[in-house]
Design brief:
- The chain is built from ten helices and twelve strands.
- It is of the alpha/beta class.
- The protein folds into three domains: 5-89, Winged helix-like DNA-binding domain superfamily/Winged helix DNA-binding domain (Arc Repressor Mutant, subunit A, Orthogonal Bundle), CATH 1.10.10.10; 93-161 and 265-289, D-Maltodextrin-Binding Protein, domain 2; 164-257, D-Maltodextrin-Binding Protein, domain 2, CATH 3.40.190.10.
- Strand 8 (189-193), helix 7 (198-206) and strand 9 (211-215) form a beta-alpha-beta unit.
- 27% of the residues are buried.
Length: 293
């Protein structure tokens, strides 16, 4: 028997909202439509799902609660199925790349590489805990991760290291040093790009008493940096970016390396083993452009 998904959606909504009127309002249909739908669902299943002993007030019986719970699982499976098919269709024609931090995608975006397939970059950082799910659900075929992943389905290839430097105003005595460590930067206020992934915890946890002025808009950050003396970070991967170059061209700051053992993130290219033949040629090209110093 083919089950009507709309009726299952009504059942799940009733379990959540508790009344026919609230269910109808949520689904943007009429209350009589919900009433008829629930009657029809009971007829199709051949069981009673509701306790109707109280006039004008129905509630799910024990079987109805179980049916609504199972219906929610079935609807989620249907959504997952649709998402996987659509993702497979798109990914079959391109390699979608994600990352847990912006550095690797900045490097890739600003470099010329050859690829066996069209490359598309997802610029929104992937949360580390979502990496495995994104790969399995085909949202991305390749994700830059700061942890090696080796499972029955996923494997990783080492790419290289990212480290930070800091642009410091010339009037600051630290700008005269050949390098600084995190402790040297204590108490300073920094302009920082909003979403830096794992780097956020590294700088916040290791630079004592510092303030971080997070900027979501890169144009705004560039404008503020040109008209202020706040220091800001760059990385060996972002040096290829025109935005980083433009911010450094104002002449008011000096690029100072951060020489500190805590200042490093190792990056890996992580992917499904089933995509190895497609992804590994691209990873070899990325490895070639990764800064070695």
């Amino acid at each position: 028997m083919a089950m009507n998904l709309d009726l299952l959606k009504e059942l799940v909504a009733f379990q959540r909202y508790g009344t026919l009127s609230s269910t109808a309002e949520h689904l943007m249909i009429t209350q009589p439509t919900v009433t008829r739908g629930m009657r029809r669902l009971e007829d199709e299943l051949g069981v009673s799902l509701f306790d109707r002993r109280v006039s004008n007030h129905i509630k799910l019986n024990e079987t109805g609660v179980y049916a609504a719970t199972e219906a929610a699982k079935l609807l989620k499976a249907e959504r997952d199925f649709t998402e996987r098919v659509l993702n497979y269709h798109h990914l079959n024609h391109e390699i979608v790349i994600g990352s847990v931090a912006p550095g690797p995608v900045i490097l890739l975006e600003n470099s010329e590489i050859s690829s066996p397939a069209k490359v598309k970059i997802n610029f929104q950082n992937v949360f580390p805990e979502k990496v495995a799910d994104n790969l399995k659900n085909l949202k991305e075929k390749l994700i830059f991760t700061n942890q090696e992943i080796m499972t029955d389905e996923i494997e990783s290839v080492y790419l290289g290291v990212e480290y930070l430097g800091v642009e410091i105003g010339k009037s600051n005595p630290l700008s005269k040093k050949t390098s600084v460590n995190f402790d040297d930067l204590a108490g300073m206020s920094f302009l920082v790009v909003q979403d830096t992934g794992p780097w956020q915890a590294i700088v916040e946890n290791n630079i004592p008493d510092a303030a971080f002025l997070y900027q979501a808009d890169l144009d705004a950050m560039s404008e503020i940096s040109r008209n202020s003396k706040f220091p800001y970070f760059f990385s060996n991967l972002s040096l290829v970016s025109s935005a980083t170059i433009e911010r450094s061209d104002d002449g008011g700051r000096v690029a100072v390396p951060i020489d500190d053992p805590r200042n490093r993130l190792e990056f890996y290219g992580s992917y499904l083993k089933s995509n190895r033949k497609l992804v590994q040629p691209l990873l070899k090209e990325i490895n070639k452009i990764w800064p070695q110093n």
